[in-house]
Amino acid sequence: MITNKKLRMEEKPKLRDLAERLCSVMLEVSGVDAMQETRRRPVVMARVMVANALLAEGYTEHAVGAVLGWDHATIHHYRNRMEAVLTTPGYEDERDLWKRFKRSI
To answer: Is residue 75 within 8 Å of residue 47, measured between CB atoms?
Structure first.
């Protein structure tokens, strides 16, 4: 688990490889490229899920943001967004996608 804000040099390639693999899995599972530069809901939800999968591996918001090219505040928002998706009625499709994504990684 990476706990300090600065990612050790030897951890960067590992995190980058994991992020690329998770984006590939998301593309296979949902047909959505999480790294597209758009604010369309399916793409944003794919980003939220990829970021949360990295957070679940123990990486910090700063580390995840650095490797994905997003600000740590965005990753923090994505963490909160995922909580809402998992607990709020009306997000059944997103919860189903999250389950399929998690099974595939």
So the answer is: no
